[in-house]
Amino acid sequence: MLFKNKTLQYVFLVGLPLVVHPTSSFAGAAEEIASPTFDLNNNQYRILNLPILYPANDNRTNMMLLLSDKGLASIKAFEVDKMSLWDTSSGLVPFYPTELTQASENKIPNKRAFYDANDHIYDERCITLKSGAEVFLQQVSNHKKISQDEKSSLLEQRNQIKNCQQSIPLIQVNTEWTQSAQQYASYLNGIILFYKANYSSATKIFTAISQIDEPWLKETAQYMLIRTTLNELYSQSLGTYGDLDTQKVDQALLKTFFNRITDYFKLYPKGQYVASARGFLRRGYWIANQQDALVKEMIWQMDHPRSDYYNLDMSTLAAEIDRKVFGLENFNAKTLNDPFFLAIYDLMYMRQSDSTQYRPISWSELNAQKPVFKEQPELFRYLQAVHLYFIQKKPQDALNYLPKQKPNSIQNYLELSQYTLKGVILEKSSDKNLVEQYWDHLLAISANPYQKALAEVALAIYYKNTNNQNAFLGNHSKIKQATLQKAFITQIADVKALESIITAKDSSADKKNLALYTLLDKSLMTQNYAVFNKAYTTWLPQDASEYKAYNSKIKAYKSEPHFEVFVWNGHEITPTLKCPKLSTLTAGLEKNPKNLTYRLCLGEYMRNQGTALENFYGDYYYGPSFSQPKNAFTGETFSRGEVYKEIIKSNSKSELQAYALYRAVMCYSPSSINVCGGKEATKSTRKQWYAQIKRDYPNTTWAKSLKYYW
């Protein structure tokens, strides 16, 4: 079977060379949950997140939601890939943390200069390749003391610097040029050395230029001394695996770095680089392992978005905080004395975990934080409600900390979080009709795509739990997200619902094809042969053999189910043991489902089709799923391993039994892992099968080919 795996990339765009390692986003998670689900009632870490403040979310998601509520971040609805229903693997909710951060931008622009915000560059020294060139070209072009020929030469030289990896020779400064042109050429040499990571030589040039009278060069060189020292400091502080080793930090160089920032602010308190220079403070505090100073600087930035020193970038801030604060090896929660950081910490430590090294925050520890939240009492009451519900398992008590009245609108992510948690609690205790009305109300008052998508998820879960399949059907269904529709069809829909989708005039071809594939797959695997035969003869496309999913020659079929797996013309095991084509085989099984030859042949079909269906239905589905969906198809799941056992136990010596013995042994070849389904056979049983075929059927090619049992 063909699968499509979505590569998960947690990109930490933090301004210095990329180092990927587990962060405290995973605190409380014994292991990352790799099977994403539509689930609101969960506090175990999930790779797919919800637009609410929740323990199950990645830290970065919770941070972005709080940053939005603080008026700092604007979170747009990211564009969901438009795919066929068969290919659909993700929607707006739930989402990957990186999808949310990449869809976020500053609500209040920062004042940083010399920064290519749209470039995915992981090395600090390289982030100004474009913006630095633009400013340089502008300065040279407008300079009145530099001749046109000198300008052309300088601009040509700067345009040759395109990346940090290229080998660029230093410029030979022409002594016949004007003094200004020579100074700009020297500056370019400093830039070349900087990008080549020759920091000591670059420092000498920038130091010299910082003493000249050319205003732009003088200030820019002073600023570049900060960057050069920072990069030299960081490069010398890396451990064996490329991560920061605080034991290797050169304290003298660290002091020089901070002094250079101080010098710049003294010389240029309103300089063009003040925001960027102050941003380097955070990196210095991180390298210096000064968590308290780092957190305080971040808080100052969040509290002063109108300042000329404001330098936060919302698309990267969450990853920076997660790595450089919560991801610190010696992270100390006692340094947190701000609602933003404490809320993230509290949610992180209200996760479910099997790890012996993890302990959730206690009720008394949480309540001790109340004074810190005096300006944000609703946020604190929500955190208390989360603790009561998830940690203390007291849902009714948790309700006392949530708003009593049903709102007419949702103004922020905290309100959405309160509403959602209350709904989750009500689902456990209230009348089912009231619960549906509650989620319907959220859908009705939804003011943005995230609220609407979350309401759909909540309703879909409710419909699943109450087995209201009709609510998913038809164009009037409230469930519009493709991932939810797909999950319903592949995991919840029963025979009646699937047939309804296939025959409905308002069903799209995508829906019909997915429903048909699911119906064929599940009915065959659960041995509902009458259902399978009806679907096969009535709805299977005449050119089913052309439907090969991504391998289809017809472009339109590449994004549709691979119906060709149901096109099987039979198989000749021996001249006297032959299997008919699939439609003939299942017609025979409908009349005589216990026929061992037919059953063995169905096993041959499963084996010959490359295990397309053999690994049990549902394997073709990728994307978030409903947690613990009830199997809507009755019947025992077919397993060729069990068929072989039935034939072996028949005690009727025959070619059929010889082949069954051979296949039963081969089920465990060569890894001793059962690939045929059914109950695991002990090694002693496999040994008996091996001995039996050697004893009873010594002259068969099957017995002769077996050298081992596994």
Describe this structure in words.
There is one protein chain. It is built from 28 helices and 6 strands. The strands form 3 sheets. It has a two-stranded parallel sheet with strand order 1-6. A two-stranded antiparallel sheet has the order 2-3. Strands 4-5 form a two-stranded antiparallel sheet. Helix 21 runs antiparallel to helix 22, helix 23 runs antiparallel to helix 24 and helix 26 packs antiparallel against helix 27. Among the domains are: 160 residues, no CATH class; 61 residues, no CATH class. By secondary structure, the protein is mainly α. The chain is 48% helix and 2% strand. Keywords: Signal.
Task: Give the low-pLDDT segments.
Answer: 1-23, 117-121, 614-620
Oligomer: single chain
Q: Specify the overall morphology.
A: globular
Average the pLDDT over all residues and give the rounded result. 90
| Strand arrangement in the largest pleated sheet | 1-6
Q: Radius of gyration from the CA trace?
A: 33 Å
Helical content, roughly? 40-55%
Strand percentage lies at: under 5%
Largest sheet report:
2 strands, parallel
**What structural category arises from helix and sheet content?**
mainly alpha
Distance between the termini: 25 Å
Task: Please give the number of β-strands.
Answer: 6
> How many individual helices?
28
Keywords: Signal
